Amino acid sequence: MFFLGSKNLLGFDIGASKIKLCVAQIKSNSIHVKKYFEIPMDKNPIHQGEIHPTDKLIQKCKVALSKLKIKSKKVCAGVAGSSVMVKRVTIPLMEDSLIHEQIRWEAEQYIPFDLGSVILEHKKLDLKLQPDSLEVLLVAAQDHFVMQVNQFIQNLGKTCACIDVSSFALSNALSRTYKGLPHKTVALFDIGAESTHFIVLHRDELIFSRDVPIGGKAHTQEIEKAMGLSFQEAEAFKKASVGEWPEQVHQAVLSGNKLVTDQLTGSIEFFLNTSSQFDLEKIYITGGGAFTPGLLEALKLSLQKEMEILNFSDRVKYSGDPSLKNSFFQSGAVSLGLALRKDK
Questions:
Q1: What is the pTM of this model?
Q2: CA of residue 226 relative to chain centroid, distance
Q3: Running along the chain, 344 residues long, what does each successive block of 10 average in pLDDT?
Q4: Residue whose C-alpha is closest to residue 250's, from 238, 232, 259
Q5: Percentage helix, strand, coil, to 5, in the chain?
Q6: Domain spanning 179-311: CATH 3.30.420.40
Q7: I need a labelling partner for 48 at 20 to 30 A (CA). Which of 32, 141, 156, 243 fits?
């Protein structure tokens, strides 16, 4: 089910704190987001490689779908986390018809799952890094997790026409909104609540993907410790105007910035150490956590790379819920990438 899709898909991005719904169309090379909605969750439904949405969450999703009057039955759902793995591998030059068997052999070396219980896919890359060889992205997902996602969608009265890896959806959104990137090799951090999607594109093609286990929750936990608050109280402080922050919150956010910066810097260093053929020219950041005060500056200082906030507001027409417009442009990239999936 990976990489496949059909027209008029509903993008269904299952995050740690929200589910994001997106309906979008492309007409005359212009992207139009027609509907967008966010469903807040009390807790992450994905835990230890399993997804178990509560009856309450299923009902909230049904209410949202009814409110949005979404006619399409077909959904493209994003998957990520410990049950999903993406890795670039080098294999000998061969006919396309033979790649699948070679990929199974490669998977035995790299995939930390029982191959009898995984769905394996691959994508041949348009890269020539070594003579007489091919560069291929190997994608693996535990089949029980994929079936659980599929069942979740069916419980909403929808059909799961496509299951996509969230990093591929993110890549799809970036390459479509920043089509013809002036830089050959760019990275993107999508900083969520509990984790960060880290991807690298070379000439608009995904070549590296990793989920980094840190996000905006790190700042909330630092505020929680510094102020002796509950998690909910600390989260409310974090979302308040910076001018209303007491000094302890300022210092806690600085500590959170350091935690996030250290982990993301380590991920960049890992990519550069294992992919010396590529010169990383620019880094974009997006997601709700990307807008934490001082984080972009801390990352720039640590990475010493050209960086900016991903901004596709002038590249996408938005006619969804006006109250969610800013939130969409800040953290809706994965849901947009899912909604834009088409038949191959």
A1: 0.92
A2: 30
A3: 59 94 89 95 88 94 91 89 90 90 88 87 88 92 93 95 93 87 88 96 93 96 95 91 91 97 97 91 95 96 95 92 96 96 60
A4: 238
A5: 40, 30, 30
A6: yes
A7: 156
